Amino acid sequence: MAIDPASTPPSAIESFEPLFTAEEAFPAFERLWLNAEMRIEGCFRIFDLRTKLRSPEARLIGETWFDLIVHCLDRGVSIDLTISDFDPVVGTEYHRLSWASARQLAAAAELAKHGNLTYSIALHPARVGSLPRLLLYPKLRQKLYERDEDLLTPGVSERKTALRSTHRASNASPKAFRF
């Protein structure tokens, strides 16, 4: 039995173009943002608004993703973004980058004349199990000793003090081991 193409309903996806490299994907992604009419929603591991625009169309409105976001907001497009956060001790540089993105997004929202920008910096809720924690403890202790407290890694001083007292307790009694 043959299927009549005229009688089949159109699918939700009307075109598909596989993009294999960043050189292909970034300009296409920028065009999607430029063509958005109502709303953009996205989740990103890393999203740095200082990233240079690649497509000729996007470069007409500015040089970076900051410019593209302000442009989209000015056109009345609502944007909702979630950006991954990272552990402030083990992934300090990525943690700082996530929160730098939050400040950049806040600045973009302030500069835009229209649109609505919402964003969140989301730390994955997973926790390290007991055995991996036990194995990683010496490295974590070393990283905390090397780390200086700043606005994006609050509580480092308290953790250092807690580690010192734990270390003293474990030296006093080899069987004592606490986190």
Largest sheet: 3 strands, parallel
Helix content: 40-55%
How many domains in all? 2
Number of helices: 6
What class would the helix/strand composition place it in?
A: alpha/beta
Number of strands: 3
Q: State the end-to-end CA separation.
A: 69 Å
The whole-number mean of residue pLDDT values reads: 81
Strand content: 5-15%
- The stretches of 5 or more residues where confidence is low (pLDDT under 50) are 167-179
CA radius of gyration? 24 Å
Rough shape?
Answer: elongated
Strand order of the largest sheet: 1-2-3
Please write the string of helix (H) and strand (E) elements.
HEHHEHEHH
Give a written overview of the molecule:
- The protein is of the alpha/beta class.
- The protein folds into two domains: 21-126, no CATH class; 128-179, no CATH class.
- It has helices spanning 22-35, 56-59, 65-74, 92-111, 130-146, 156-172; strands at 39-44, 78-85, 117-123.
- Strands 1-2-3 form a three-stranded parallel β-sheet, covered by helices on one side.
- α4 (92-111) links the parallel β2 and β3 (117-123).
- It is elongated, with a radius of gyration of 24 Å.
- Residues 167-179 have low confidence and may be disordered.
